[in-house]
Specification:
With 481 residues, this protein is α/β, with parallel strands linked by helices. It has helices at residues 13-28, 48-59, 70-77, 90-101, 119-128, 148-161, 177-187, 218-222, 225-243, 252-265, 271-277, 399-402, 410-420, 429-447, 464-471; strands spanning 3-8, 36-42, 80-84, 107-112, 136-140, 167-169, 201-209, 278-284, 286-288, 291-293, 311-316, 328-333, 340-347, 363-369, 373-381, 390-398, 454-457. A 9-stranded mixed β-sheet has the order 16-15-14-13-7-12-11-8-17, sandwiched between helices. It has a 6-stranded parallel β-sheet with strand order 3-2-1-4-5-6, sandwiched between helices. A two-stranded antiparallel sheet has the order 9-10.
Length: 481
């Protein structure tokens, strides 16, 4: 299958840090279809060879095992081209059309690796230039909008140019192998589904923690915050995959229909429930990995009076028969104690304990990063003189070791899916808008709250109120157990 892949924002950080290295890995693994051309477009003027040299320099920053040899890079770079393009100029889109018309590739993928405020302009210009024929697909990076209204406006413009089947709204978390395993875990095995309901599960916790601060992304992050950056998209997508009903098939829309049902069933927030069930925080100075780090307000280009949250913890429920009364706890933040992304399913304790001592409830831990695996925590007899005492034991599966030869990175998987036209791991417009509809009352309540975010020390697990949020129902976060 021949393809043309165009990166708008071809000299931007996303392109050279994530997208081009992911494409190279697909090339190295022999998974990139032959007969493809990769075109980077940006405002700078440079010939193909100069761009390839520029890209080669950037590839030297790729971690060791993924860094190409000179020979590998030369073979990969032979498919890479560059064109200067001013995104505001209609004639430049005509030039792009001429370049794409030099041959009739089976598929054309237009990847908008630009600031989201340019999405509508680019899509309108693509439509005016006739670059929306059926073989064309457009990939939209997150964040898609700043709130519900802006997301709806972007989707309105996208739908006026492209069909829904041509629009690939990317959430790179969905490309992680461990996230893909959520579907296999639930619907490819008979073991867990009979227990996957309110009678067996006490609560579910989703943690997306980062030990890094905002770094050089201060201006972007300050206009975004943790709720928009992580909860509205990544965390809610994980929640839908954990809570969804079994789809009728592995078809993209069958899956996305069930995810949308979960989003619509989430308990809506009110000003009172935001105050009770949502904790927002902002990191101050502290110590991470033994090194002193500055607080958020002292980061480069962050306003000294910023009220932007770098941490969110919240409690919600899925209001349907399967999950009624089961708390779902979501937590994300920067400058936390560790880089850790996981989903913890806490099962209910046995109804009548017959063994003395601590009978801890069973847990299923789905590890997303830095490890990728599955851990089932059980109780077992120690085998002492009397045999009654129980101790916690774990069944631990490391997916990276079990499937080492077949593992691919998130962007590698998603780029290959976009080229192939597989929509399963991309977000549909109604999903995305419903997620905004659910978080918007939180944003509205915060806008009216004079208190602002609570502070927490860098290197901690967030404000103490986050622990209290879980403790009031007799539970605790995984690291506190």
């Amino acid at each position: 299958m021949s393809f043309d892949l165009v990166f708008f924002g071809g000299t931007g950080d996303l392109t050279w840090r994530k997208l081009m290295p992911a494409l190279f890995q697909a090339f190295r693994h022999g998974k990139l279809p032959e007969g493809g051309r990769i075109l980077a477009v940006a405002r700078d003027e440079m010939p193909d060879e100069r761009y390839r040299e520029w890209l080669k320099e950037r590839f030297r920053e790729v971690e060791g095992s993924k860094r190409p040899s000179d020979e590998e890079f030369e073979r990969f770079a032979a498919q890479v081209f560059y064109r200067r393009m001013d995104l505001s100029q209609p004639e430049h889109y005509q030039r792009l059309k001429e370049w794409l018309s030099e041959r009739q590739a089976d598929t054309v993928v237009l990847y908008l690796a630009t600031s989201p405020h340019l999405f509508t302009q680019i899509c309108e210009q693509l439509g005016a230039a006739g670059l929306n024929e059926p073989r064309v697909r457009v990939v939209l990076e997150k964040p898609l909008g700043h709130d519900l209204a802006s997301a709806q406006q972007i989707n309105k413009v996208v739908r006026s140019v492209f069909s829904e089947s041509q629009a690939f709204r990317i959430d790179h978390y969905l490309g992680k192998p461990s996230v893909q395993n959520l579907m296999a875990l639930r619907f490819g095995n008979a073991l867990f589904e009979p227990l996957w309901h309110r009678e067996s599960i006490a609560n579910i916790q989703i943690t997306l923690a980062e030990s890094l601060g905002v770094g050089t992304r201060g201006p972007f992050y300050d206009g975004t915050g943790a709720l928009r950056d992580m909860v509205q998209n990544h965390a809610l997508q994980l929640l839908t995959m954990i809570a969804m009903e079994p789809p009728s098939s592995n078809d993209a829309d069958a899956i996305r229909d069930e995810k949308l049902k979960v989003l619509r069933a989430l308990k809506p927030f009110t000003p009172d429930s935001v105050a009770r069930d949502v904790v927002r925080g902002q990191y101050r100075s502290g110590t991470v990995d033994g090194k002193a780090v500055v607080g958020y307000l002292d980061e480069a280009k962050v306003p000294a009076d910023s009220r932007t949250e770098t941490f969110v913890a919240l409690r919600t429920e899925v209001q349907n028969w399967r999950w009624a009364g089961v708390p779902f706890y979501l937590r994300t933040g920067k400058r936390l104690a560790a880089r850790d992304a996981q989903i913890v399913v806490n099962f209910r304790p046995v109804p009548h304990p017959i063994f003395p001592g601590a009978n801890r409830p069973n847990q299923l831990v789905i590890k997303l990063q830095p490890e990728d695996g599955l851990e089932l925590r059980l109780q077992a007899a120690k085998g002492g003189a009397h045999g009654e005492a129980l101790a916690p034991v774990s069944l631990d599966l490391d997916f990276d070791k079990a499937f080492a030869a077949d593992r691919v990175g998130a962007y590698e998987r998603l780029l290959l899916d976009a080229i192939a036209g597989r929509l399963n791991l991309f977000v549909r417009s109604d999903e995305q808008e419903q997620a905004w509809r659910w978080v918007e009352p939180i944003l509205d309540a915060w806008a009216q709250d004079p208190a602002g975010p609570r502070t927490y020390s860098a290197g901690s697990w967030g404000p103490p109120a986050a622990s209290a949020l879980v403790a009031r129902e007799g539970f605790s976060w995984a690291e506190e157990q």
